[in-house]
Amino acid sequence: MKQSRNAAHQSVLKKIIAAVIATLLITTVITSTAFADSLGKYDVTIIDGGVESTIATAAKEPIDVLQTAGITLNPDDKMDISAFEQGEGGTIVIERLNAVNVKFAGNVQTYQVYAPTVGEALDEIGLTAGEEKNVNYTFGDAVQDGMVIEIKNAPSVTLTADGNKVKYAKVSGTVSDLLAVAGVKLGKDDYTKPALNTALKAGMSVSVNRVSFKTYTKTKKIKFKTVKKKDKKLEQGKKKVVKKGKNGKKKVTYTEKIVNGKVVSKNVVKEVVTKKAVRKVVKVGTKAVDPDVKPNGVQSKNGFTLGQKISGRYTHYCACATCNGSGAGTTSSGRKIHNGMKDPHYIACNWLPMGSVIKVDGVNYTVVDRGGSGLSRTGRIDIFTPAGHAACYRLGTGSCSITIVRLGW
Question: pLDDT digit string (tens) for 12-24?
Answer without folding.
Answer: 446 655 554 444 4
